[in-house]
Amino acid sequence: MSGRRHDNRGASPYPRSLRVNQVLREVLAEELERLADADERLRLVTVTSVDTASDLRHATVFLSSLSDDGADALAERRPQLQHSLSRQLRMKRTPLLAFEVDPAVISGSRVEDVLRRIHAASAEAVGDVDSAKDPTTPTTPTTPTNSATSAESSGIRQDDQ
User: Fold this and answer.
1) H-helix or E-strand containing 44?
2) CATH 3.30.300.20 corresponds to the domain 15-101
3) Full-prediction pTM beyond 0.85?
4) Alpha carbons 114 and 109: distance in angstroms, whole number
């Protein structure tokens, strides 16, 4: 099995399938960017990856976020997207597209939320009111320094400054 790369979504480990997935992702991302100019519902839709079936007849497009309006817009634009794929790619068949929210993005959001809650709880337990208000602000202790001692410790004499 040397030389084969494995995709974490269960796609075929063959290099051709990986290349097809990558090309589909690039073409769909470009097309969705063009469509977002005309359709407001597609503005925040980002293609994270594509998983193509081994027979290349079906492809699942994973998106960073997908609202109900965005899902409706993609359902309306599916034929247009598939036509764009058929024009830009040299494939025997154009895969039938299905759109889903990327589970990796969802689990990453959950981890971020848990870490924010832990940080806020630890800040409140310590009594640091400022960081409890804004969990994204890191706390750094400030210590007064003497310019003479810091200059001496860095090897710089006062005359050289």
Assistant:
1) none
2) yes
3) no
4) 9
Q: What is the pLDDT of residues 44-62, one digit of tens each?
A: 888 889 998 888 889 999 9
Provide the residue ranges of all domains of the chain, joining segments of one domain with +: 15-101, 107-136
The residue type at 143: T
* Angle separating helix axes 15-38 and 68-88, nearest 10 degrees: 120
2-49 pLDDT, tens per residue?
A: 443 344 555 456 678 888 899 999 999 999 888 888 888 888 888 889
Angle at 71 between CA 65 and CA 73, to 5 degrees: 120
Which of 44, 90, 94 has its CA nearest to residue 67? 44
> What is the CB neighbour count within 10 angstroms for residue 56?
17
The pLDDT score that the predictor gives to residue 103 is 82
